[in-house]
Amino acid sequence: xxxxxxxxxxxxxxxxxxxxxxxxxxxxxxxxxxxxxxxxxxxxxxxxxxxxxxxxxxxxxxxxxxxxxxxxxxxxxxxxxxxxxxxxxxxxxxxxxxxxxxxxxxxxxxxxxxxxxxxxxxxxxxxxxxxxxxxxxxxxxxxxxxxxxxxxxxxxxxxxxxxxxxxxxxxxxxxxxxxxxxxxxxxxxxxxxxxxxxxxxxxxxxxxxxxxxxxxxxxxxxxxxxxxxxx
Length: 231
Hints:
The chain is built from six helices and five strands; from the N terminus they run H-H-E-E-E-H-E-E-H-H-H. By secondary structure, the protein is an alpha+beta fold. The N and C termini lie far apart (109 Å).
């Protein structure tokens, strides 16, 4: 057999190997492209889902305008001869005033606020925000609590007067907890925590703002400091 005939199978084997290699490279490139596209598509889908969830959260956020509440609601919350004065803070709350005839002037008796205004991140239950109207005295002791709005499907007894009354007398400055100082609510743990935490953190925010608003102005710096600043 001639040498030319012997070289033909070798050439064919070489071409076959090259073809296989090319196909393997193409398959690898295709697989890498598919994986890359899958990762990209997953990231885009995750971003879209997060954006949709954010929009849904905006739609379910309770817009509870405290200053538009009927007077009868405030009277129910704080019965008595009181005046409700809008705060200068943002979010809003009421300062509760009572006229003292002995000293001929109004005296601050407490504050009224909405939990979703003052502590929105703490007032989120199982299904959405829980809006509570709260009255407390100047020391942060809760005087009364009313339910405004919620999205819970199974709140249990969390919105019943008997359970809410256990929150009255608690100070928002205290470290009380559900299960130890307050009875838990079977089947509505998130709901109970949202109510308790919303009241406590919202009350603390009100006291902090009220303290800063009523603080006396800082005294002017000494004349030496003024002279240095002028120079």
